[in-house]
């Protein structure tokens, strides 16, 4: 993909921010395996636009894995269904609970900012992937392009990555811009004078969530493999994610899939649902950054 001209032509437009960052977490109660906010057993219609499908079988149930292009924006109804799924299956907050509506609205806003419908296109690719049977949703995951800060050992948020790239591209003169006209996002970040050696373009896996009914059936692994397929199509060779150090089930899954620990930070922040105030509350934690380098095959 000729990323440079796509990005240059997108310099004017609305920016957006993810309120929850890219955290992989599994509740310690007994709620399903996830990697950020999610929902439970909702029927997802098969008529959503902009999707690709890969049918698979988990246990005795047929599951379809659909990939939706967040770069151009996904259907509002799908955002609502995934938000509800995350509330139940990731956060462990069931519909009807006190302050459920307020928490759901915050979760939905987050997904809308990163994957929802907008005018034009987002400047960096995003993709929302769901797995479902004909009766209910069984899993979901998001993936988006962002910058890995090599100096500070951290992943920039989508909005921070977008702003950093905006500044670097805008600083180029006409002649300088021509030399990047055929660059991919990886080549652009490596080659720009203000970014090369300081940042790396990566795909960030976030919000991996599997319903309790499908845990142990390989649905999480299949979602992660679908992410890898999307990322290869983007021309990016590395996937990164954040996971809490104490989240042993998620860490075991990612280790099994070939992810390696790159960074451990004990000054990080995670979030938990606050049922008394109807908000997501920030809490200190030790956060790990895991990465996986993809093969060329």
Strand and helix map with partners:
Elements: H1 3-8, E1 23-24, E2 38-39, E3 51-58, E4 61-69, H2 76-89, H3 100-115, E5 126-132, E6 137-149, E7 154-155, H4 158-170, H5 174-178, H6 185-191, E8 199-210, H7 219-234, E9 238-244, H8 248-256, E10 260-274, E11 279-293
Parallel strand pairs: 1-9, 8-9
Antiparallel strand pairs: 3-4, 4-5, 5-6, 6-7, 6-8, 9-11, 10-11
Helix pairs in contact: 2-3
Entry summary:
The chain is an alpha+beta fold. The protein is built from eight helices and eleven strands. Strands 1, 3, 4, 5, 6, 7, 8, 9, 10 and 11 form a ten-stranded mixed β-sheet that branches.
Write structural notes for this entry:
The chain is an alpha+beta fold and 297 residues long. It is built from eight helices and eleven strands. The chain has helices spanning 3-8, 76-89, 100-115, 158-170, 174-178, 185-191, 219-234, 248-256; strands spanning 23-24, 38-39, 51-58, 61-69, 126-132, 137-149, 154-155, 199-210, 238-244, 260-274, 279-293. Strands 1, 3, 4, 5, 6, 7, 8, 9, 10 and 11 form a ten-stranded mixed β-sheet that branches. A hairpin with a 4-residue loop joins strand 5 (126-132) and strand 6 (137-149). The longest helix is centred in the middle third of the chain and has 16 residues, at 100-115. The radius of gyration is 19 Å and the shape is globular. The two termini are 18 Å apart.
């Amino acid at each position: 993909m000729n990323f440079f001209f796509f990005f240059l032509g997108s310099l004017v437009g609305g920016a957006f921010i993810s309120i929850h960052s890219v955290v992989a977490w599994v509740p310690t109660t007994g709620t399903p395996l996830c990697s950020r906010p999610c929902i439970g057993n909702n029927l997802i219609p098969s008529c959503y636009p902009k999707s690709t499908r890969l049918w698979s079988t988990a246990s005795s149930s047929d599951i379809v894995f659909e990939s939706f292009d967040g770069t151009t924006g996904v259907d509002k109804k799908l955002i609502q269904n995934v938000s509800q799924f995350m509330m139940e299956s990731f956060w462990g907050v069931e519909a009807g609970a006190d302050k459920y509506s307020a928490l759901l609205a915050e979760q939905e806003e987050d997904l809308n900012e990163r994957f929802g419908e907008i005018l034009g296109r987002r400047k960096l690719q995003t993709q929302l992937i769901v797995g479902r049977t004909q009766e209910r949703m069984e899993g979901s995951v998001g993936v988006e392009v962002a910058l890995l800060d090599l100096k500070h050992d951290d992943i920039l948020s989508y909005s921070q990555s977008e702003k950093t790239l905006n500044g670097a591209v805008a600083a180029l003169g006409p002649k300088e811009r021509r030399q990047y006209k055929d660059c991919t996002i990886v080549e652009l970040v490596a080659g720009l004078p203000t970014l090369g050696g300081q940042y790396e373009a990566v795909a960030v896996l976030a919000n991996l969530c599997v319903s309790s009914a499908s845990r142990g059936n390989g649905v999480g692994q299949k979602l992660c493999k679908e992410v890898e397929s999307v990322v290869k199509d983007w021309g990016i060779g590395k996937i990164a994610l954040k996971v809490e150090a104490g989240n042993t089930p998620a860490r075991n899954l990612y280790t099994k899939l070939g992810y390696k620990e790159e960074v451990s930070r004990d000054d990080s922040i995670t979030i938990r649902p606050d049922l008394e105030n109807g908000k997501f509350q920030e809490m200190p934690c030790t956060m790990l950054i895991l990465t996986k380098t993809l093969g060329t095959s």
